[in-house]
Amino acid sequence: MVAALLTAAALVLCLRFPNPTPQFDEFYHLLAARSLLHDGDLTINDGARPYTRAALFTYAVAASQSVFGETITAARVPSALTGALLVGAVFLWVRRRAGWLAALLSAGTVMLTLHPLNYATMVRFYTPHALLVFLAAISAFEVLDRWRQQGIKPASREKCWWSWWALGVASALLALHLQFTTLIAAAAVSVWGLVLCVRWWIKQDNTLKLRSAAAALGAVVAIFLLLWGVGVLDALLAVYRRPRMWSAHTATDLAFYHRLLTNWYAPLWWGLPIWVALGWRRHREVVGFCLVFFLVTVGLHSLMAVKADRYVLYALPMLFVIVGIGAGECSTFVWRYVQVRFVSLDAPPIQRFAVCSLVVLALTCAGGYVWYRTPAGPRAVQLLAGQLHRNPFARTDWNAAAPTLRPFLERADIAVTSAGIKSLYYFDRLDAALSHQGKQQLTTDTQTPTVLSETLGDADDLAAVREQHRCGVVAIEDEHWRHPAFVTDATADWIETNLTTVPITRAARLRVFTWGMDDRTAMADDAIQPNNPHDPPRQGP
Q1: Does the first or last residue of the chain, that is N or C, have fewer Cβ atoms within 10 Å of its Cβ?
Q2: Cα distances (angstroms) measured from residue 402 to each of 118, 384, 491
Q3: Does residue 86 sit in helix, strand or coil?
Q4: Residue 35: which residues within 8 A CB-CB, separation 6 or more?
Q5: Could you report the per-residue pLDDT of 333-366, keeping only the tens digit for each?
């Protein structure tokens, strides 16, 4: 019952969390789902290669929109639902392993922190991936723990053992379908399995130690040679260490996630040794597993070339479980200590009530202080309360730019944008994309891209387009302006010198330039009100 109530509350919070400006990658699923509903395929525009990344998630988005309508809110339901289920799953597992208080604290932290809430409102697969990885990880833990306690043969006869095994395999395969980084989570679980093997190995006699060590070493070498021989290792390392231009500045930044955790979760991250120590005595297996999983995943992601906060979202619940167990054990110890030391059985009821109230108040204040000093908690509450100023996830709002931008798009011979997929979604028009990174990656043997459009990379390409077309529009998102992967400094200087700037509301976070147009005529057209972000987008000309 409690798990169901927590899940329902988390679902309400996820759906209520303000996220009016979709992130760029969300539009791939939005457009693919639209195509699936209307054309029966995942093709974003004519002639393009189907968008098959995390296809099952796109099918879930399309199913939600078929039920609730083709709106962005409906498209976010799968992420919100899995975010709520993650809260319920954390509560049930921690209650099973460490009790009610630790479960409430762990699940509550998942439910009321910024990153889980934010990604639960995005039309992206990171929250479903976090849920699936968590289910796979705890399933592996339960299976390994039964082997540790009973050996392989007794455990293999238990129905519960097979249930955990089936849940783990299914969740792991689905998670791998959604995201390549599931292999990092698998590596973390493997490290925990290695820890258990070492603990078992230490207890054995010398003969068995020698034989098992030789067998294990031989197996590792054989697997390594097999993977290396078929080229799997080379392919994995190439993906793991291949930088992207949009994240080139963090490719060698080993402290990226350390700073992320320090900025948003300082008391939890810096206090990790304390939380581990508090929960270690009674729950060392669970705390040890969560600690190994969290540190290994964050460490491997720190070595990975491409870095972003969303990539470690699936690891955060393990940190929250450690903190929940540690805080729960600390609270239980203080409560019992006060009862034994200061409250006698023959004490008046008013005295017992007063002491217990003071203890509860002190623990609440201590927990509140930790929460206050964890920026991800208060910021999430502020956003839920509607305090959207200095939103750390503020993005370009094409919907707010529609009244100004649409008249120019209607007259332009060509529309050039740094985020063409958004223009395709809101205005059903995509002529050319301005992306230095995209231009650099084009080769003569490139496969048909997911989204078809001409790609412009620098000022020379823009100048050539300007010569070929009588009038045109260039729309650039603020976050792409003077960015080495999109609009470089040289290209930005050329645009400012040779094109006409169109005034546009700052709330849109968009820069619009034109050539060959009578801007005053365009601006004098009948105003077209922007779409409500929860309504279906208008179709373009």
Answers
A1: N
A2: 25, 26, 25
A3: helix
A4: 41, 42, 43, 44
A5: 887 877 777 666 566 777 777 777 888 888 888 8
